[in-house]
Amino acid sequence: MSDSQLEFLKQLREALPMAAKIEDRREALLENSRDFGQLVGEPVLPLAVVYPQTVADVQNIMRLSYEHGMPVISRGAGTGVSGAAHVTGLCIVMNLMQLNRIIEIRPEDEVAVVEPGVINYDLNEAAAEFGLMYAPDPASYKMSTVGGNIATNAGGLRCAKYGVTRESVLGLDIVLADGRLIRVGKNTFKGVAGYDLTSLFTGSEGTLGVVVRAVLRLRYQPVDERDVSIVFPSLEAAVMGVQSIARARVQPAILELLDLPTIRILDEQYQTDYASRGGAMLLVRLDGYGAEKEETVIREAFSDGPMTLSSSGAPEATQLIEMRRTSRGDTKDDAYRMGEDVAVPKSLMAKYVQELRKIATAHDVDVRVIAHAGDGNLHPTLSVEPESGENPLIRLSEALEESIRVAIDMGGTITGEHGVGLIKREWLTWEQSQDVIQIQHDIKSLLDEKNILNPGKAI
Amino acid sequence: MSDSQLEFLKQLREALPMAAKIEDRREALLENSRDFGQLVGEPVLPLAVVYPQTVADVQNIMRLSYEHGMPVISRGAGTGVSGAAHVTGLCIVMNLMQLNRIIEIRPEDEVAVVEPGVINYDLNEAAAEFGLMYAPDPASYKMSTVGGNIATNAGGLRCAKYGVTRESVLGLDIVLADGRLIRVGKNTFKGVAGYDLTSLFTGSEGTLGVVVRAVLRLRYQPVDERDVSIVFPSLEAAVMGVQSIARARVQPAILELLDLPTIRILDEQYQTDYASRGGAMLLVRLDGYGAEKEETVIREAFSDGPMTLSSSGAPEATQLIEMRRTSRGDTKDDAYRMGEDVAVPKSLMAKYVQELRKIATAHDVDVRVIAHAGDGNLHPTLSVEPESGENPLIRLSEALEESIRVAIDMGGTITGEHGVGLIKREWLTWEQSQDVIQIQHDIKSLLDEKNILNPGKAI
Ligand SMILES: Cc1cc2nc3c(=O)[nH]c(=O)nc-3n(C[C@H](O)[C@H](O)[C@H](O)COP(=O)(O)OP(=O)(O)OC[C@H]3O[C@@H](n4cnc5c(N)ncnc54)[C@H](O)[C@@H]3O)c2cc1C
Ligand SMILES: Cc1cc2nc3c(=O)[nH]c(=O)nc-3n(C[C@H](O)[C@H](O)[C@H](O)COP(=O)(O)OP(=O)(O)OC[C@H]3O[C@@H](n4cnc5c(N)ncnc54)[C@H](O)[C@@H]3O)c2cc1C
Questions:
Q1: Taking every annotated instance into account, which residue ranges of this chain make up the domain FAD-binding PCMH-type (chains A, B) (predicted)?
Q2: What are the tens digits of pLDDT across the range B165-197?
């Protein structure tokens, strides 16, 4: 450690009260050195991990880091899957998990005010006492933080109906690169005073400021929920099924698509046997006062043909949704397996999957797909056997790149909900023009002229 | 006209094809010199009004204006109510009403691609052929343009359920101050690649770029719609009614609140007699598969007590919603009447109206209120009789300012949906800190360093 680094740490300790823990044990450094995204090479350790307990702590940390030009990676639960929280060079990690109070829930305003380290699940538990919910529900909701959800503009299962994180964020308190605290947005559902800085910070992956407090819109817990699982003979048929549901003008709360390889994995994990029944599955949740009618409409829509529907009221479909929710990502991506996150216009989902399979075959890699089908957001997982054939890693990366290019060619995006992070930065230049990327860099420089906020990520 | 102005106009004519009309008749200049917002003093005429027919026209206009440092006010239908389209000095007005093609509707993607001059109503008509709708519906929807709606992030009646304009804007083509064309956002429902520039341009009131094309999310037309009007003895009771509906976990598509003076105006305009029945009214629209159940729930919630409900299926409530939709703003604000647009946390609506009445009494001005009650967005209209008492205009402006300060003190905003424009710029400094305002000016400078895009507005 250099003298200036030692000096920085010394000043950091002095600037913070006892309660704000500073960690430099190797174990803690390692744990905070990366997220769930693929890591190329060895992990890089941060200089230290700081756990601010108050907003003032965050301000002090940023003030000092600004003075010293020390990069800071804000970190929630580290469940990100695009390497946005990866350490890549000299920096400290500011772990916000202990800044985790639910400041207030105002049930009559349908609003919650929280610190960033609150776990998504905990907020939902607290809101449930008032018959309310915080709608954005990434599959990581039992682990990930609201601050991380905001910084990635996380999606989730029920965002087809209720919108992504951005749609639930009314206002934010942000600590800027130099330690100043600002408040953007509003306390109310609507508000158009000035530019929409709230949306600018939402999804900016810790590169523009640190979220230290959020005013969130809550929604009514649905009075009724009905789950239906539908097994189709093929993936194409399941995608047609998505269109049928749309044509029936039903807006499900959840509409998940699973392909055969994914079903097989669930079968293995949960000792079930859905794979024998067909080639793809839709998991549908209908909610609210219309749920009963919508269930009827959907059952009618799929009454003839080779589909198998779960019986009404049986726990099966609900279990499957839970399985789907908790199935993915238990293991991190590694060199031989990459999870993707493209989104394409809804009508092109079947075509996209066909292309994907062609690509997989051409490069001799495996592919499985789950999709937030209501949004056209697909999560293909491409993988190779480490020992198989020639240059497995090259085959994998070629297949991956082609799969991204095809999505872009179809008018899609490289990332529907996971963010650009570190891993998708190059692909961003495939999707966006140089002018658009330049504007983002200019905004970044404006707010972080020393480039200390999670440098090298997101844009 | 100075030589340089003449030279600019000459070059403008040369740069544009015949089809792109340039107007300098006084009548056209006058018509394009202001919006529906209050005008202080005499109208200022622009140098010329240009009607681009193509995106290339817009680029040429901006390129030339950039070279000459000529300010440009983008203009849709001019129905704005905050003076955002007012001419305040030397400039040209770029009227986008003729750039009005619906480029495509992709029903299976639930997406429309439009030019900015398309009238909101026309887009809805076109979408209806596919059983779809464009949800944002400002009461001006028969006149206002989609481009203007985007530039103001317009709200509307059904945004409590379906969100404001921003929630329906997926991607934008923007012509920048120097004439460059960029594409931001996405074609898909979800997408988090890079910073959210789409939201930055949405609501920026023509100060950051010109919207020349928009990819919009459409929603399903509801399979069922049920309207209920409820007359309450008092405004306080009606606001309690809003809470009762929320507690019943019903999310109406429309939930409008009318106070007694507003009801009297409707009565006058439509020869009805609702004023005799009570002191305030809620207009409720329930839609979708749950509408029938929701209607039952609402009727039960208000079954005892002094409320009068329209009978089920009767045309009355629907007519009232139409009346409400078309009642306001037929006449522009003037010196003696100011329409406001605050939003407060939902639970404080009743308290806010009480304060408002106190303020009105104290300053001897009249007040009436309508509200998008589902959002906590209130439109008080304050007015004085020109001949009444001492200094009517001072009384009005003092009452107005107090009404704004009280909204801010309650955690509200100066503008729920109309925008800051010219008229609310000073108030913005009451709501937002100097740091936050500075960031917005910095972003403005970044994108428009010559300050030619609708200068002096929005921030
Ligand atoms: C099993 C599993 C399932 C998942 N399912 C989904 C899903 O359905 N939808 C989805 O969108 N994502 C999903 N993800 C990805 C991930 O959970 C989300 O991106 C989540 O929002 C990250 O939250 P986090 O608290 O873990 O943030 P982290 O991973 O710690 O950080 C993510 C980014 O946010 C920044 N950040 C964190 N906190 C702050 C803050 N307070 N201020 C500023 N910047 C901050 C970090 O610097 C980093 O750039 C899943 C991940 C896993 C492992
Ligand atoms: C009767 C009436 C009812 C109304 N009801 C509502 C309501 O319910 N909800 C609501 O939110 N508003 C309402 N308004 C206000 C107004 O209709 C909205 O603000 C509307 O969005 C303005 O659209 P426009 O086409 O008239 O835009 P204009 O008034 O022409 O312009 C508004 C702003 O947008 C900019 N602009 C316009 N087009 C573009 C473009 N293509 N690119 C860049 N900038 C552009 C202008 O420079 C200006 O700053 C109402 C107004 C009236 C008169």
A1: 42-221
A2: 999 999 999 999 999 999 999 999 999 999 999
Place of tokens 């009727």: B299
ipTM for the assembly: 0.96
Q: How far does the CA of residue A226 sit from the closest CA of chain B (Å)?
A: 13
How many Å lie between the centroid of ligand 1 and the Cα of residue B226? 41
| CATH assignment of B225-325, among 1.20.1090.10, 3.40.640.10, 3.30.70.3450, 3.30.930.10 | 3.30.70.3450
Which atom number of ligand 1 is nearest to the Cα of residue B192?
11
Q: Are B19 and B62 in contact (CB under 8 A)?
A: no
A3-98 and A102-220, same CATH topology: no
B433-455 residue pLDDT tens: 999 999 999 999 999 999 999 99
pLDDT at B29: 98
**Pocket, ligand 2, Cβ cutoff 6 A:** B 35-36, 73-81, 84-85, 96, 116, 138-140, 144-145, 147-149, 151-152, 154-156, 205-206, 210-211, 328-329, 417-418, 454, 457
Between the CA of A246 and the centroid of ligand 1 the distance, in Å, is: 30
* Residue of chain B nearest A431, judged by CA positions: B193
Return the percentage of chain A with pLDDT > 70, whole number.
Answer: 98
pLDDT tens-digit series, residues B235-278: 999 999 999 999 999 999 999 999 999 999 889 888 889 999 99
pTM of the model: 0.97
A228 ligand 1 Cβ < 6 A = no
The domain limits of chain B are: 3-98, 102-220, 225-325
Show contacts of A298-306: CB within 8 Å, 24+ apart. Answer: A298/A228, A298/A245, A298/A248, A298/A250, A299/A228, A301/A244, A301/A245, A301/A248, A302/A230, A302/A241, A302/A244, A306/A232, A306/A233, A306/A237, A306/A278
* Ligand 2 center–CA B6 separation, angstroms: 31
> Helix, strand, coil shares of chain B as percentages rounded to 5?
35, 20, 40
In terms of CA atoms, which chain A residue is nearest residue B293?
A289
Domain A102-220 has CATH 3.40.50.300: no
Q: pLDDT of A280-320, one tens digit each?
A: 999 999 999 999 999 999 999 999 889 999 999 889 999 99
